[in-house]
Amino acid sequence: MVLDKTWQDMSEIQPQVMTMLQNSITKNRVAHAYLFEGEKGTGKQDISIAFAKSLLCEAPTAGYEPCEFCRNCKRISSGNHPDVHLIEKDGLSIKKEQIKGLQEEFSKKA
């Protein structure tokens, strides 16, 4: 199960990051990739999940906040969305095999 913090929760923890992501969505200038880096406990995973929900939500509020009720939001929250892949370190780092598995996943046809 995926951690389930709201956009508002993350805006209180990381206001600058969330404003930048909000602007990317509302101005329709989303980059092809984002790298979330920082100390443990800074909300990287929660922010990335909120951002993924915002991008895939069927009925975002205010143009960028995920509704949390549509099929895509629910699937992301349950860790069961086919377009959202979470890679977590195995031990101290992400392993080569994990990246190979992700590449295999990306090479599959729809």
- Helicity level, as a percent range? 40-55%
Q: Over the alpha carbons, how many angstroms does the gyration radius reach?
A: 14 Å
CATH architecture, by name, is 3-Layer(aba) Sandwich
Structural class: mainly alpha
Order of helices and strands: HHHHH
CATH C-level class is Alpha Beta
What would the average pLDDT be, to the nearest integer? Answer: 88
Strand content: under 5%
- How many strand segments? 0
Shape: globular
**Individual helix count:** 5
CATH superfamily: P-loop containing nucleotide triphosphate hydrolases
Number of domains: 1
Give a short account of the largest sheet: none
Overview of the molecule:
The chain is mostly helical and 110 residues long. It has a single domain (7-84), classed as P-loop containing nucleotide triphosphate hydrolases (Rossmann fold, 3-Layer(aba) Sandwich), CATH 3.40.50.300. Helices cover 46% and strands 0% of the residues. It has helices spanning 7-13, 15-26, 44-56, 71-77, 96-107. The protein starts with 6 loop residues before the first helix and ends with a helix.
Please outline the helices and strands.
Elements: H1 7-13, H2 15-26, H3 44-56, H4 71-77, H5 96-107
Summary, kept brief:
With 110 residues, the chain is mainly alpha-helical. It has helices spanning 7-13, 15-26, 44-56, 71-77, 96-107.
Throw out a few tags for this protein.
110 residues, mainly alpha, Rossmann fold, 5 helices, globular
